[in-house]
Amino acid sequence: MAKLVLAATFFALSSMVGAKPIDTPVEPPSDADKSGSVLRGEWDSQQIPKGGHQYTLYNNLWGSRKPGTTGSQITEMLLYRQAEKSISWKTQYNWQGNPNDVKSYANVALENGIRKKVSSISSIPTTWSWKYDSASNPLTADVSYDLWLSRDPKSAPSSSSSTVEVMVWLSNRHAGPAGSQITTIKVGGLQWQLFKGRVGTWDVYSFVATNELKNYHADLLHFLDVLRTLPKNGVDLREQYLVALQAGTEPFHGSATLTTSAYTVAIN
């Protein structure tokens, strides 16, 4: 959701890669789905896999129509592996104007197992490997999970019946979450800056990694559980429903190509 740019920033770590022999191309497994259309329109989406409904890939240019904003974005599914329920995709964008405003949220939304009461969930295991193939300098953007909760199991995300939004930022390049920082907290063995804000009818809790996490493995349920333990500003989500779980990128300003090589998530 919409956020203000902060002065504090987290910069990407760079690494030197030595020359390597050219690898022989490896064919994808027989159960891999390589078919994917390029999503260009504001609300273009694609069910994945075709004939099934594990995920939906969205282009989602929700903030692109504000006067003064110019640019474009495309999103494309690269590969889906049925056995692992693993998806890879890329998003390419170039956005200018209104540098403090989110332009879009290209994302993959989980469809299988969603809309469960939090108290009935035992774990939300996820893996996410991603990288910037290219990025402008400066770039204002985040890479994040977005979890939506409501007391109504039929609620749509970002709606009048939304009660809590929980974001987990794996990358923050010159951007800032809604609201203000309320604490620094350890979740899953890592340090996170925790912000709380208000958007529409719901509270937004944003866990922002203190370092960029490009190969992430975790149980997202820990983020919902830890909110209950806060001495102040906490919330008990056990009687609410997890109505949406998304993973993607929010660009504010600049250009980049972001590629996810492997992403999985499940609700148990």
From TrEMBL:
Residues 1-19 form the signal peptide. InterPro entries: ConA-like_dom_sf, GH11/12, GH12. Transmembrane segments: none annotated. PANTHER family: BLR1656 PROTEIN, XYLOGLUCAN-SPECIFIC ENDO-BETA-1,4-GLUCANASE A. One of its GO terms (biological process) is polysaccharide catabolic process. One of its GO terms (molecular function) is cellulase activity. It comes from the Eukaryota. Belongs to the glycosyl hydrolase 12 (cellulase H) family. Keywords: Carbohydrate metabolism, Glycosidase, Hydrolase, Polysaccharide degradation, Signal. Pfam families: Glyco_hydro_12 (PF01670). This is Glycoside hydrolase family 12 protein. It comes from Rhizoctonia solani 123E. The keyword Hydrolase applies.
